[in-house]
Amino acid sequence: MPIMPNEPVIILQNVTVRYRVPRENYHTFKEFAIRRIQGRVQYLDLLALQDINLEIHKGEVFGLIGPNGAGKTTLLRLIAKVMRPTEGRVWVKGRIAPLLAIGAGFHMELTGRENIFLNGTLLGLTRREIEALFNQIVDFAELWDFIDAPLRTYSSGMVARLGFAVATARMPDVLIVDEVLSVGDIAFQEKSAARIREFREAGATILLVSHSMAAVKKMCSRAAWLDGGVLRAVGGVSEVIEKFEKYMGISN
Amino acid sequence: MTKINLLSLEYDSSIRPPTFLEEFLQAWRYRDLILYLVRRDITTRYKRSVLGVAWTMLNPLGMMIILSIVFSHIFHVNVRGYPAYVLSGLVVWNFFAQVSTAIINSLVWGGDLFRRIYVPRSAFAFSSIGTGVVNLSLSLVPLLLVMATLGIWPKTTLIFVPVAMLFLSLFTMGVGLLISTVGMYFVDVVEMYAIVLMGWMYLTPVIYPMSALPSNIQFWLLFNPMVHIVNVFRMLVFDGIHPSLGTWLAAGLSSLGTFLVGWLIFTAKVDEFAYRT
Predict the structure, then answer these.
(1) pTM (predicted TM-score)
(2) CB of A80 within 8 A of CB of A96?
(3) Which residue of B has its CA nearest to A20?
């Protein structure tokens, strides 16, 4: 399928996420009820994201940069449907694989096989779909010898391999990668990087969140810089990083 | 105007069906997950124990023995087949207490998973119910054995037990969702619930017969839905008689009503969970 130039897969329109927290900490119901009756509950609006407008296109590798607490994770949660915006609109086309959810819900007492089905259904696959993908998953994770052993007997590298294999068993339209992936040993890292490259060549969109400017520069074509819940810059990757580094240089 | 289609791969946060419907459709879509969660809960609970699933049956048996000794020998409660009477109430009560607590725990404290991927939260509530139904069904085995030992033979009324379980499930789900939603705002409520449960058990004829109470108190207990649910179950299994239409209606309507209220309030606030837990 030919890739249309600039065909959007993710659109954020005037997106605001507001956490409404009581100004003082009311930990008990009684305390809160008393204040409430007295009309003395004051709320503090914490803006995790403020009026964000962003469009990410099909097939691009898009970088998301910014200091801790900038709102990057909140943005990813919106795109992954984990959270809905307080205001504005989030639109996503296609299937999302949030690699932040690698190994979600793994249970150490269950076998590798049982965990594939549990983890797969958590990621929204049906039992039939997992059955069809099963051999491919175990092949990729290279775990045929241990597939009926409980997960607690696995090394952490093996667990990560299994998680990655399930999360990427089916090609997603949007792949969310938080920090540069380091799964398993060097050989497996190469293998997982190759799989991501394959997805990219097949037209998947990749959203990379990283603190490593070198990685973002190397992999991404465009990037966005978030700071304090506000979008500071969007555009070509070198241009955005330049602005970001210049700003950080001044503020340091 | 875009049509709402939950199965389409297009997600638009500004277009959605009413949440009470959406949550239900999503839970249905994740039905395989619910099944695997039930399997996980049942296989992992006893995985490393020698007796395994047998504990599901041994647990209420142990409680029955203790309560029987305490109540028939110390307090001289006089009910024919008292051990079986206690057990038939206990399995119902245990279902309610354990499952509603499990629902609250997974919805209020199970935040990490929900922070990382989208899963309909109600799937976890449904799976707790599923696990409870399996355990309750398993504990029918020792119950019937104890009854047989005491010379009480089950009657054909047993075939209506699934209906009683459905009412019990609806009521438990409703209470679990309600407490979870309130507990999301005020964690104290969750702590309080553990204490309420203990008192609630004594306001339900689980270990004593209704007739042991003064009649004015008996009247007030009719406002406790668990009284009717326990009664229906016990009549079907232990007494082998058909509950009156009034008893069926009291159990059915109160559990359906509780479920609907719980479901509507929970789904109305379901987006808030992502902001608060």
Answers:
(1) 0.90
(2) yes
(3) B275
ipTM entry: 0.87
Domain range list for chain B = 19-276
DSSP string, chain B: -PPP-TTSSEEETT----HHHHHHHHHHHTHHHHHHHHHHHHHHHTTTSSSTTHHHHHHHHHHHHHHHIIIIIIS----TTHHHHHHHHHHHHHHHHHHHHHHHIIIII-HHHHHHS---THHHHHHHHHHHHHHHHHHHHHHHHHHHHTT----GGGGGHHHHHHHHHHHHHHHHHHHHHHHHH-THHHHHHHHHHHHHHHTTTTSS-GGGS-HHHHHHHTT-HHHHHHHHHHIIIII--PPPHHHHHHHHHHHHHHHHHHHHHHHHTHHHHHHH-
Q: Are B13 and A91 an interchain contact pair (Cβ–Cβ within 8 Å)?
A: yes
Of B32, B33, B274, the CB nearest to A82: B274
Report whether B161 contacts B144 (CB < 8 A): no
pLDDT tens, N- to C-terminus, chain A (252 residues): 455 567 899 999 999 999 877 666 666 777 777 777 676 666 778 889 999 999 999 999 999 999 888 899 899 999 999 999 999 999 999 888 877 778 888 999 999 999 999 999 999 999 999 999 999 999 999 999 999 999 999 998 899 999 999 999 999 999 998 765 667 788 888 888 899 889 999 999 999 998 888 888 988 999 999 999 999 999 999 999 999 989 888 665
Rounded to the nearest angstrom, the minimum Cα separation between B133 and chain A is: 20
Which of B14, B28, B29, B32 is most worth mutating to test chain A (most A CB atoms within 10 A of its CB)?
B32
Task: Decide if A183 contacts A161 (C-beta within 8 A).
Answer: yes
Which tens digit of pLDDT belongs to each residue from B26-60?
999 999 999 999 999 988 877 777 777 788 788 88
Q: How far away is chain A from the Cα of B113, in angstroms, using its nearest Cα?
A: 6
Q: Do A91 and B9 touch (CB under 8 A)?
A: no
- Residue A8: its H or E element: strand A8-22
Q: How far is CA A54 from CA A8, A84, A180, in A?
A: 10, 16, 23
Quote the CA–CA distance of A88 and A54 in Å, as a whole number. Answer: 12
What pLDDT band is residue B8 in, cutting at 50, 70 and 90? Answer: low
Give the residue on A whose Cα is nearest the Cα of B191: A28
A43-69 per-residue burial string, b: 16 or more CB within 10 A, e: under 16:
eeeeebbbebebebbbbbbbbbbbeee
Is A118 in Cβ contact with B114 (below 8 Å)? no
Q: Which of A92, A107, A121 sits opposite B32 (nearest CB)?
A: A121
- Predicted confidence (pLDDT) per residue in B116-133, tens digit: 889 999 999 999 999 999
B194 has pLDDT over 70: yes
